[in-house]
Amino acid sequence: MLGEDELRKIIEGVRGRFAFDCIVPLSGGRDSAYVLYMAKRHFGLRTLAVNFDNEFQTPQAKANILAACGILDVPLVTYRSRWGTGKKTVHYAIRAALDGGIRAMADCFCNACSYGYRACCYIAAEKFNVPLILWGESAGEYTQPMTDEHLRLGLTARIRKQFSGAGLLYRLNLYRQRLEFPVRGNFWRNLALLAPRLKRADTREIAFFDYVPWNRDLLKRTITRELGWKKPDDSVSTWRIDCKLDRLVTFCYYNIFGCSKHCFGYHNMINDRQMSREKALGQELRACSIPGAELKELLAGDIELRPDEVERIIGFSRKH
């Protein structure tokens, strides 16, 4: 933990230089709402909120974004693909993965968003001349090393997935997204379909929770009381409520690992004494009980898969 004093030094170095002191990427979820509150109310920064609408935002996430920006009097800039690349990327990624089974499908959902939300913050920093970006990722959410090895496909499966007809259309839409939201200085990274990097010398990006402790209870209490933040009525947890695809991720993880992706995060939170084992177990049991009708509606309605494709995915369910 670098400490709040170090963060204040960074803040004083950027304060008042331009129209905005910082950008806060805002998803409508828990952590980003807290960072927005702290930037504006606690540190008194002239803040610009930037939202990347990945085309799967939940209605509650959108309501949380508008409420927070309204209460804090923070300008909001929202980016959304005119070409629908978010939905198309997920659609074709799933279709390309079907023959490889549920392990091939488990990592289909986040590639478009992981490029888009960073790219749009960098684009906004360039456009509005903003010297600081405050990212709201927390260590509790970093679960990738726990699952990577188990989700890795063999060479033949990877080739089949990437170079099928649907796989090529998936990659085409990733390129289209980079054309629509280009980040200066990332030509070669774009060709390789890598995440963008900030090339603007006058802008610094930092992880807010490297400087300010991530306190789960304080965070939830603050955003609900001060910003009117809410989770959807049907959501078990306040975590990852901003994306409809979280239900599909949970379905995949449960049928691969026997638990949700949240469970790996709960492991981190328990070790950090941010959550009790009993609380984590209760949330985990409820999170994995996803109604089949709800999952079918997501697959057929939002992702626009064919009925036979939907049934194949439902068929990946564990047999009891």
TrEMBL record:
> By what name is this protein known?
Uncharacterized protein
Top-level taxon in the UniProt lineage: Bacteria
Return the SUPFAM superfamilies for the record: Adenine nucleotide alpha hydrolases-like
Q: What InterPro entries is this protein classified in?
A: Rossmann-like_a/b/a_fold (IPR014729)
